[in-house]
Every structure is written in structure tokens, then in C-alpha cells.
Specification:
globular, SDR_fam, 261 residues, SDR family oxidoreductase, seven-stranded parallel beta sheet, alpha/beta, Rossmann fold, 2 domains, single chain, 8 helices
């Protein structure tokens, strides 16, 4: 299938590692002109080198903290080619873990800025460049908590759900501009973030990481964690121009883990 991405300008945020980097790599493989953004210039340079080694193609890098509005503006401008941006993939690290009673106002504000306000700002900045391009694709990376809250991750569950509500709302508002917007939510994908959360859970329960992961796999019909590349392929399809009629939707890449309809 031709995903119609050759020569398209793509911005992927939080892309120096994990799911962001995997998604950027897949866009490069499809012939897109990709810009990756992250807080760490050193990690960006490492990701740039790894993508070059894997594809023979160079990606553009830009230092950007998703909580910094000026840096968001600069990243979008940098990614736009001839003032045109075709694809935006919004992504950010997860917020602090814990229960409702453990969170204070500062925790809620920090999570709002990291996981919801950042997405609002990135999309708002990208829209004029997509209109200039005659249309575009937006893919928001969230979590399976948009369908089923995750115990101990209340901040993520609340604000990721907000992103999905934003996606639904914007699907109608942006349709006349030929901009399609969707959400792709990872389940248990083998990334540093998952291992970090599993280790925290193991420490809390005074057990081993292996025990926590074995228990988690019992809830996944496919019986294993997903690989970043598997997730990235779904992101790239929804962010492609082969996707011409799906907007406002959420797809879970979770091996069947979430049972919600």
C-alpha cells in the first residue's frame, strides 16, 4: 500500500526515544521529511544517528520542551517546509504516578501542562501550516486509560481522556480544512516507561519485576508485550494520506488487553 507520505513534512514530538522515535523512524522509511523534537539535544542527536544508520536518511532535530510555548512555536516553524506542515504527531512523557489522595495542586497543574495543554498548543500552532498545505493529519499518542482508567495513574487517566475529547471535538472543526485527527493509544509496549512503571509497582508490592510483568501478561490475549515498531506502524497509517476517511477515532494498540467496548 502506498501511504502517500513521500516528501511530506512531519513533526514528531518526544521523539528522542520510545514510541516517538519508533514512529519517526517509520515515517522516514515511508519517504517523509521528518523533524523530531525532544527536551534533550544529546538524546535527539543519538536518535538522529540511529535513524540515519537504519535508513540512510537524515532527520531534522529541534530541542523542545512540550511545556514551553515558545519552543513549540519554534519546532512547528522548523518542521514546516515552505510554510507547510503535513503531519503532526503529538507525544509527551507520562506524568507522575500515584493515587488521588497523593496529588496536590502542583501535581495536577504539572500534568495538565505536560499532557493536555501541550497537545492543545501544538495543534493550534500546526493548523495554519496544514491549511497552507491544503490539509493534514494529526495523531495524538495517549494511553489505554482513555478507555479504561489505570490504577495508580490518575493524572494520566484524566488528562489523556481530555486529549481524546479534544480529538473528537476537533474532528468536526477541522474537517472542512481536510485535516484528519485521531488518537493512537499504546497498551503494554516494551519501552523504558513501561519498565519504569513496572519497577515502581514491584517496589511497592515488595516483589520482583519479573513477577509484575508475568502477572500483567495474563491480561493480554496475545500473551506478550507489543514492540515499538508494531505501534509505530499504526501511528504512521493514521498519520498518512492513505487514511482518507477516518477522523475523530481512537485505536488501542494493546494486544486485546482492554475489554471496553
Amino acid at each position: 500500500m502506498d501511504l502517500e507520505l513521500t516528501g511530506k513534512s512531519v513533526l514528531v514530538t518526544a521523539a528522542s526515544k520510545g514510541l516517538g522515535k519508533a514512529s519517526a523512524l517509520q515515517f522516514v522509511k515511508e519517504g517523509a521529511n521528518v523533524t523530531i523534537a525532544s527536551r534533550s539535544i544529546e538524546q535527539l542527536q543519538q536518535a538522529q544517528a540511529e535513524i540515519l544508520a537504519a535508513t540512510g536518511k537524515q532527520v531534522q532535530i529541534v530541542e523542545m520542551d512540550v511545556r514551553n510555548f515558545q519552543q513549540i512555536q519554534a519546532a512547528v516553524r522548523t518542521a514546516a517546509v515552505d510554510n507547510k506542515l503535513d503531519v503532526l504527531v503529538t507525544n509527551a512523557g507520562g506524568p507522575k504516578g500515584g493515587t488521588f489522595q497523593q496529588m496536590d495542586d502542583a501535581d495536577w497543574q504539572a500534568a495538565f501542562e505536560l499532557n493536555l495543554l501541550s497537545v492543545i498548543r501544538m495543534i493550534r500552532e500546526a493548523i495554519p501550516y496544514m491549511r497552507q498545505a491544503g490539509g493534514g493529519r494529526i495523531v495524538n499518542l495517549t494511553s489505554t486509560s482513555i478507555k479504561q482508567p489505570i490504577d495508580g495513574l490518575i493524572l494520566s487517566s484524566i488528562f489523556r481522556a481530555g486529549v481524546q475529547s479534544l480529538t473528537k471535538s476537533l474532528a468536526s472543526e477541522l474537517a472542512s480544512d481536510h485535516i484528519l485527527i485521531n488518537t493512537v493509544a499504546p497498551g503494554r509496549i516494551a519501552t523504558d516507561r513501561i519498565f519504569e512503571l513496572d519497577q515502581l509497582k514491584a517496589d511497592k508490592q515488595q516483589t520482583t519485576l519479573d513477577a509484575i510483568q508475568a502477572a500483567a501478561l495474563q491480561h493480554i490475549p496475545l500473551g506478550r508485550m507489543g514492540e515499538p515498531e508494531e505501534f509505530a506502524k499504526i501511528v504512521v497509517f493514521y498519520g498518512s494520506f492513505a487514511n482518507s476517511y477516518v477522523t475523530g477515532q481512537s485505536v488501542l494498540v494493546d494486544g486485546g488487553m482492554v475489554k471496553a467496548l
